[in-house]
Structure formats: C-alpha cells, structure tokens
Automatic annotation (TrEMBL):
Pfam families: RNase_H (PF00075). Residues 1-71 are annotated as: Disordered. SUPFAM superfamilies: Ribonuclease H-like. PROSITE patterns: RNASE_H_1. Coiled coil: none annotated. Transmembrane segments: none annotated. This is Predicted protein. InterPro entries: RNaseH-like_sf (IPR012337), RNaseH_domain (IPR002156), RNaseH_sf (IPR036397). Residues 98-247 form the RNase H type-1 domain. Gene3D superfamilies: Ribonuclease H-like superfamily/Ribonuclease H. Residues 43-56 have a biased composition (Basic and acidic residues). GO terms for molecular function: nucleic acid binding; RNA-DNA hybrid ribonuclease activity.
C-alpha cells in the first residue's frame, strides 16, 4: 500500500513537471537536456541567442559580418571604383636618357568620341595627351591619321625644345601618317581629308599646320616606319601611354595617377631599349 502510494506520488510529480515545461519557440531545450526552470533565466538566454556574437581581435569575423555578407546583401555586390572622367589631359615629363642618337617613337589610340596619343624619346622626353574628339570635327576615316600626326607633333616639340638642332629619328607605325610626313618634307601642304586649317582659339595655328612647317624646314629630321605590336620597346611604350590617356578621359584611371605612371612606364621601356642595344 505504501509502495503504491509512493509510486502514485512519483507519477504525479512527473506529470506536474511535464505540464510545467514551456511550450513555444524554446520548447526544444527540455528535449536537449537543457532545463531552465526559471522563466527569467530563459528570457535572458533567448535574448542572448538573438543578439549577434562579438568576436575579439584575431578570432575571426563576428556573426554580424557573416549575416551582412549574405547573398542578398548590397555589400556582396559592392560597386567598382570609377574615377571621374575628364575632358582633356596632357602630361609632358622627363626620365633618364639613353646615350646615343635621339630616337622618338609615337603612337595614337582612337575611340568613338575620344582620342589619345603618346611618345617616348631616348633623350628622356615622354608624355601623353588625350581629349574628347566629337565626330563632327573631322571625317571618321581621317581621325586615326590626324591623331597619329598630332602624336608626332607633341613628341617633336618636346624633344626639339630640350635639344635644339639635334638630329632626331622619328619612328611611326602608321603608313598613312608617314605618307603625309614625306610629302611635307618635299614642300606639300596637303592635309588629311576634312581637317580644317583655320586659326584656332586665341589665334593659334592648327597643330598639323605647325607640324607641316616643322617637317619642311627642319632637315635634321628623319622618319622611319616601325611595325606595330612587334615587340619594339619604344613603340610599345608609346602605344601604352596613348591608351593610358584614353582610359583617363573615359574615367577608368584617375588623373592624379598619371604623373606617377607615365615616367615609370617610359623608364621601363628605355631600360629595355638600352639592354637590347647592348646585346
């Protein structure tokens, strides 16, 4: 009788204990062996689980970082850095020269509404120029040759200003531009189709008209064809500088980076040219 009474009392205690177990979001704790008899402690525990974990230095990312980098988070698809586009950029600088005759390499890069030109000389002068060039200013089939000739003009101005009277060999990879240079040497005044020869703003002469007179009256200049993209270091550097200027006016390269990049690229090309000549 006493045993039966004790068993009945134990059954009632177990039943009452089960009835006291919480029902709802935290009901699985009891099945996992986590008994939280005090409702206050359970509320504290649930609040702790809802809060993001904080990590100490060197212990990996916090829960907040892991959650914020989810598939739908804007941080998971951060926008690329884009520099501010500019209308025109001009860089003229100098690097360490290579001894010997002066060789000047020029090149151009042309896009739909922008153009770029670059030059490298063994005398140390180097630079680039890029700007917007709307299609209505010149015929589309003349844009390339006009930009190539402007690159020659920019390079010759820099070299002859630093070394007046010196002989200069100009290497160009555009045969049409070489054709105009040869005709100008013989006294011709022909210009690319659609190129205007009227005075520019502030009474300036057009750059190709200046180049035509420079070529005609400077007998120390020689012009040589150099095949493009054939591994010639000076030509490759001039091409790279022209494209660098084009990317700047497009807004993909910051203008503030050009004074640092131009001499680095030119110095590397001249060092390779020096090694190739010594081999």
């Amino acid at each position: 009788m006493l045993l039966g009474t004790a068993e009945g009392r134990e059954r009632r205690v177990r039943r009452d204990h089960r009835q006291q177990q919480p029902r709802g979001p935290g009901a699985g704790d009891a099945q996992q062996g986590r008994v939280l008899p005090d409702p206050t402690l359970r509320a504290v525990e649930e609040d702790r689980l809802r809060r993001p974990e904080r990590s100490s230095p060197g212990h990996g990312p916090s829960r907040t970082w892991r959650l914020s980098m989810g598939r739908r988070s804007p941080l998971a698809h951060a926008p690329r850095f884009t520099a501010r586009a500019v209308r025109q950029v001009v860089i003229n600088t100098e690097v360490k020269a290579v001894s010997g005759p002066i060789v000047l390499a020029t090149d151009a890069s042309v896009a739909a509404d922008r153009v770029g030109s670059g030059y490298v000389a063994t005398s140390g002068q180097t630079g680039l120029r890029a700007h917007e060039y709307p299609g209505h200013l010149v015929r589309s089939r003349s844009r390339v040759v006009v930009t190539e000739l402007r690159a020659v003009h920019q390079g010759l101005r820099a070299v002859l200003h630093a070394h007046p009277g010196r002989a200069v060999e100009v290497r160009v990879d555009n045969t049409q531009a070489l054709s105009y240079l040869a005709r100008w040497r013989r006294g011709s005044t022909d210009m690319p189709e659609g190129y205007g020869t009227r005075l520019r703003s502030q009474g300036r002469r057009p750059s190709l008209l200046q180049l035509q007179m420079l070529v005609e009256y400077t007998p120390s200049l020689t012009f040589v064809h150099e095949k493009a993209h054939a591994g010639h270091p000076l030509n490759e550097a001039a091409d790279s500088l022209a494209k660098l200027g084009l990317r700047c006016v497009r807004g993909t390269v910051p203008k503030e980076e050009l004074p640092r990049l131009v001499p680095v690229w030119a110095a590397g090309a001249l060092a390779e040219y020096r090694r190739g000549r010594a081999a």
